[in-house]
Design a protein that fits this description.
about 120 residues, mainly beta, five-stranded antiparallel β-sheet
Amino acid sequence: DTLFAVLSGSCTVTERGECMRSPNFPEEYNNDGTCHFQVMSQSPGIRLDVAHFNVENNWDYFHISSYEPDSDWYALQSYTGREGPDGVHVDHADLFKFVSDESISKTGFEICANDTE
């Protein structure tokens, strides 16, 4: 089963969908970018394992939000710099958004799922 899917933007997931990656990973991502992912797995309590996380501190962000039908999207948790969402638990339909500003790119992220719990 695919764990994650890209909803929009130039981010990618690995072949089996178990990892989310920033655009161009492991090279630097593009400036002025936005992309969205969603948890597709029906497994409850998927733990995120950060394999790599390096985004421009305080300017580029990886956001996590719970899915609420018919509501405005808002971030419940935000990550920047080198501190990614390692060990965070997410559930089916939860959303992720990566946003980069107009300058300074880094090597981005690879965030995988551990759904063996």
